[in-house]
Structure formats: structure tokens, C-alpha cells
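Give me C-alpha cells for this 66-residue protein.
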Amino acid sequence: MAVAAILCFLYLSGARPVAELSALAGFNIRGGLRLSPEFAALLTGLVIKFSALIAEIVQAEILPQQ
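Here you go.
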């Protein structure tokens, strides 16, 4: 349900990631992956949230309460 809500939000807001082949052009790299600020913020927040959740689970298994 949460994934559907996120995908619906991205579709309705117009935040679509664009991928191109990156190429060296002089002293710059042109192309690559372009993310809108909204999508980048959403992606960063989800990565931090779920990495903290996984860390809590691993910590609970390594250091069980006595």
C-alpha cells in the first residue's frame, strides 16, 4: 500500500527520473541520472529510514537482552 502511494505521488507530481548515458565533454561529464529535488529527498529519507530499521534488527540479534 505504501509503495502504491509513493508511486502515485511521483506520478501526480511530475517527478520522473531521467537516465541518459554519461559522456565526457571537455572538463565536464554530460548526461547521467537526473533526479528532481523532490524525488531525491524522498529517496534519501526512505534509505535512511529503512537502513536504521535494518540496523536495529541486526543489533537486536547480535546483542540479545538478558
